[in-house]
Amino acid sequence: MYDYITFGELAEANAETDALLAEEITKAESVYCSYIGDYKGFEQIGNQPSSSKTESAIRHLYKCIELQFLNTERKGANQSYNEKFLDFCKTRWIKNRKKSGLVLNLTERDIIFLTKICLRNKVKIRLNDLFIEYEKRGFYLDETSKEHLQEFFTKLNLIEKKSDSGDAQYVKRIL
Asked: What is the pLDDT of residues 21-45, one digit of tens each?
């Protein structure tokens, strides 16, 4: 089983693998579209330029799924899914801060879990690279949040400093 980040890494590593992955995704899309009887506009969906064939194939598959839900009687299912997902996020991670609006509120457990996901099998990761990994997963932090996160990792004794300048700070693997 692969996630989108792994697909991207595999596609970047080798043009042959990129073509093979794109071909398999296109096959899966063909099977999916063959089961949809009430929408026939799949052939009209153009390919969007992307950094790899794999990314282009994934984007095309998502466009097929999206149009199938938006242009059939299943429009209500799509809207219901979106509403349920938003409700789930609101009860778990989104807090209303009045004038500031809705803000993301992660618990310490959420941060540890997200960090484990970002580290994968690595023993440690540079702090700046960890923030990049967060962004790959949709978590964009402002500078204040990054400072708080650095303090949190320091409190847990997970920061390993390679120099006094502060540039070479590593976050160690969490059990």
From this structure: 999 999 999 999 888 888 888 888 8
Residue of 83, 19, 93 lying closest to 56 (CA atoms): 19
Dihedral sign for Cα 148, 151, 153, 159, please.
positive
Residue-by-residue DSSP string for 91-110? HHTEEE-GGG-EEE---HHH
Query: Is 54 in contact with 13 (CB distance < 8 Å)?
Result: no
Closest CA to 127 of 87, 71, 169, 66: 169
Q: How many helices (H) and strands (E) does the chain have?
A: 7, 5
Contact status, residue 119 vs residue 154, Cβ threshold 8 Å? no
The pTM assigned to this predicted structure is 0.63
pLDDT single digits (tens) 8-23: 888 889 899 999 999 9
What tokens appear for 88 in the block?
């789930």
Q: Is 76 exposed, middle or buried (0-12, 13-18, 19+ CB in 10 A)?
A: exposed
**Residue 134 to residue 132: CA distance in whole angstroms:** 5
Residue 151 in tokens: 């303090």
